[in-house]
Amino acid sequence: QVQLVESGGGLVQTGGSLRLSCAASGSIFRINAMGWYRQAPGKQRELVATVTSGGSTNYADSVKGRFTISRDNAKNTVSLQMNSLKPEDTAVYYCNLRNSYWPSSQDYWGQGTQVTVSS
User: Fold this and answer.
1) What pLDDT score does 30 carry?
2) How many Å separate Cα 10 from the centre of its chain?
3) Mean pLDDT, contiguous 10-residue spans, the chain (119 residues)
4) Which residues contact 16 (CB under 8 A, 6 or more apart)?
5) For residue 117, which of 94, 82, 86, 92 has the smallest C-alpha distance?
6) 27-49 as b/e: b if 16+ CB within 10 A
7) Are the CB atoms for 37 and 47 separated by under 8 Å?
8) CA dist 85 to 2, 40, 66, 80, Å?
9) How many Å apart are CA 16 and CA 26, to the nearest integer?
């Protein structure tokens, strides 16, 4: 099992910044990916950004150039720096860890943290 504890989030005005952090503990495989997904009311959960244990990153087109994901493999933490926030970024943000054991993988989720961007 893997436990994910998120911190950060809150209310910010358009153009502002927030930083989300997530700490993972438990059975973390050597090959894994950590990242952030978000879900707005009435919408499906969507990928925001991920980073693999090897350092490869992937971003949703909507956040490229504004958000930066980073991780500390020694501490099993992942952070998301969110700049130039827009009202459409408002959502519950979920931390994710995906343990990979070819050809399968297993996802774990945090409890979610609310990000609200006011216009």
Assistant:
1) 84
2) 15
3) 94 98 93 95 97 96 98 95 98 96 92 97
4) 85, 117
5) 86
6) eeeeebbbbbbbeeeeeeeeebb
7) yes
8) 30, 15, 8, 12
9) 34
